[in-house]
Structure formats: structure tokens, C-alpha cells
Design goal:
Elements (H helix, E strand, L loop, with lengths): L7 H28 L1 H23 L55 E2 L2 E4 L9 H5 L4 E9 L5 E8 L4 H12 L2 E3 L1 E3 L2 E3 L1 E9 L5
Antiparallel strand pairs: 1-6, 2-5, 3-4, 3-8, 6-7
């Protein structure tokens, strides 16, 4: 097997070409420094950079202001308590059992003590009370006087219960009745007032 070796003349020509390019580049640089092209280029680049920076600064927009927030205090919230009606059952009312009615005590009717009626103790004379005018006019009559006797046996009051038919005789009958005296009526041994009727008769006698 045979080895491949490149042509030495070709290699040398490539190296020489690279070397010539490097020399030419250096020569251009040296020429630029000598003629001031480098300083002019630097100023030009600096001017471009400054222009770009100024323009960039001018063009740069400021950040927008923060949005306005209206910090209003919300109105107080009124919480209305719900009207809850709780129906609590009431305990049953106590049952009062009325006691049986007491038997009424027996009513004992005690009969009142018997009344002992008043009795005449002193009776006046009818002729002493006969009016003279009635005698002259021949007036006679029978009447009834209602009298009330007190506990002392005296006639407390007298009234005409039955007329004699003559006014003067009626008046005389009442005066006569008040002149009577009685033993008072009694009940159980005690004097009690009573009322009774007293008959009176006016009659003329002969002579």
C-alpha cells in the first residue's frame, strides 16, 4: 500500500498567499494611522453612537402613570335580623277540679213564740167624749179606730178605720181611743208593740 503525500509546491504557494494578505492588512492599518483615517473613523463612530444614544433617550417613553384608584369607603352594610317567630307550645292549663258543693245545713224552722195580746187596763167613759153638738143634733153612730200600742201600754197612734158617719163623732172616737190604757203585748215574756182595732159606739140615752 502506497502513502499519499501532498505536493509541496502547492503548500508553499498557499502559505505565501496568506502571508501576503497579512502583510497587506498590516500595511492598510499602518497607513490608516499615518493618514488619520483611524481617528476620523473613531469620531464618526462616536458621533453615530452619541446620536443613537440621544435619539434613544428622546424616543424613550416614560412609564405610564399608575391608574387612579378611587378609594371610596363603601357604605356600611346594614344587616337586618330576620324576624323569626318561634311558636313554643304552651304547657296545658292545669285542670282545677271543683270540690263537690257542701251540703247546705238543714234549715230548722223555729216557730215564733206565741204573742200575748194587750189587755185593757183602763177604759174611759164614752159619754165623757160625746160632743154636745152631736147630742143636740141627735147624732149617733158606731165606728172602728185603728190603734197602735207601745211597750208601755199607751196608744201611740190612732186612725179612723171605720167611720161613724159623722165627722164630729169620728174626731171624738180618736180622742176616746187615745185615753185607753193597756197591759202591753208580750212575746216570750218581752213587751212588744202591736196594732189592733178598737170598736167605739156613740148612743144617746133617754132623759
Amino acid at each position: 500500500m502506497s502513502a499519499y503525500y501532498p505536493n509541496s509546491s502547492n503548500v508553499m504557494s498557499k502559505r505565501a498567499l496568506i502571508f501576503i494578505i497579512i502583510l497587506a492588512f498590516h500595511a492598510v492599518i499602518i497607513y490608516a494611522f499615518m493618514t488619520g483615517l483611524v481617528s476620523q473613523g473613531a469620531r464618526l463612530v462616536n458621533t453615530i453612537l452619541q446620536t443613537n444614544i440621544i435619539q434613544t433617550q428622546k424616543v424613550q417613553e416614560l412609564p405610564p402613570p399608575p391608574p387612579h384608584v378611587d378609594l371610596k369607603v363603601p357604605p356600611p352594610v346594614t344587616v337586618v335580623a330576620p324576624d323569626v317567630t318561634i311558636n313554643i307550645p304552651l304547657p296545658p292549663a292545669p285542670i282545677h277540679v271543683a270540690p263537690p258543693p257542701k251540703a247546705a245545713p238543714p234549715v230548722i224552722h223555729v216557730p215564733p213564740a206565741p204573742l200575748v195580746m194587750a189587755r185593757v187596763v183602763s177604759a174611759p167613759d164614752v159619754n165623757d167624749y160625746y160632743p154636745d153638738a152631736s147630742r143636740r143634733n141627735n147624732e149617733e153612730g158606731r165606728g172602728m179606730a185603728k190603734i197602735c200600742i207601745d211597750t208601755r201600754g199607751r196608744v201611740a197612734s190612732a186612725a179612723v178605720e171605720s167611720s161613724t158617719g159623722h165627722p164630729m163623732l169620728d174626731a171624738a172616737m180618736l180622742q176616746l181611743a187615745k185615753a185607753y190604757r193597756f197591759k202591753p203585748a208580750t212575746r216570750a215574756g218581752k213587751p212588744v208593740p202591736v196594732c189592733t182595732a178598737l170598736p167605739v159606739k156613740f148612743q144617746l140615752t133617754g132623759g
